[in-house]
Amino acid sequence: MNNQTDIDIVVRYLEDPENELLKQQLNEWIQQDPGHLDIFLDMKAMWQGDPLPAPSAFDTAGKWEELSTRLDKAAVPAVTAPASTRVIKMNRRYWWAAAAVLVIAGTWTLMGPGGYKTFATAQTQDSLRLPDGSMLYLNANTSVRYARSFGKDNRIVKIDKGEAFFDVKPNETLPFIVNAPEVEVQVLGTAFNVKAANTGVKVFVQSGKVSAAYRGTEKKVILTPDMEASLKLHGSTIDTHVHKKNNNILAWKTRTLTFDEAPLNEVAEALEDFYHVQVHISNPQLADQKLLATFPNMALDEVLDIMRKTLRINITHKNDLVDIY
């Protein structure tokens, strides 16, 4: 790979993740050794903003010596730790690499500000298993965090932005709480979706029962399966809606859009949310048009082409704008 170091391949990709050549180089490097994937994931987590805490008690000098040896082998300028200080002058790119090596050695833990572990996604989705066994699925452009004591004396997850689906492990003695901007969701064991947008928070329950409330107030609502609550930022009212079984709220997770005689305005909203585009219906006479179709993980243009032929309507798609007329 043009004599690039292993570490440099990862760093170059993190600096320009949309570069197809760098994606290919990273993929080839990961395929060379199963351990490379772990290194990449740890470096990615730190690159997205998780700071390193003070080192725990371990042989710091020895680890720096080990790191220097590994960097030497990778043709990276050697880094040594002076005997009188722990301040290491390193290029920013290789500082991230050094931190990743120490993480792989099991001597550091990644904790965000205030003792939180932070997870963030960019343009892709991801999932993780929480310490209590609950599963968390993150939509693109989502940031969540939980305390280092999670599962011991609390089960609190903070969703700072984006959308996440929670499949919660039952524990009657330790409620599971999700804190979103100005909103608190509490459950004992269930599966539900939380979407934190600029205008407010939406909570949808797939199974079980949850309460959604404005934090610090008595204003709350109890949600059961197929119910959704909308709580506006700086608001005081909670709007609820009962959805049909085949709604598309969780389409981002299932990767399937399903429309059962859905009106065109509802279809437009689902397309906007799923494909992150703006859909405009410029012909008001199309409001009564209804769509019966299922789109399993299909490209937007394929979906639009089927809609065009099925409903016999005109559709144009340019950049992030879709016009139906």
Automatic annotation (TrEMBL):
One Pfam entry name: FecR
Keyword set, alphabetical order: Membrane, Transmembrane, Transmembrane helix
Entry superkingdom: Bacteria
Residue stretches spanning the membrane: 94-111
Domain FecR protein stretches: 122-210
InterPro entries in UniProt: FecR, FecR_C, Ferrdict_sens_TM
Protein name in UniProt: FecR family protein
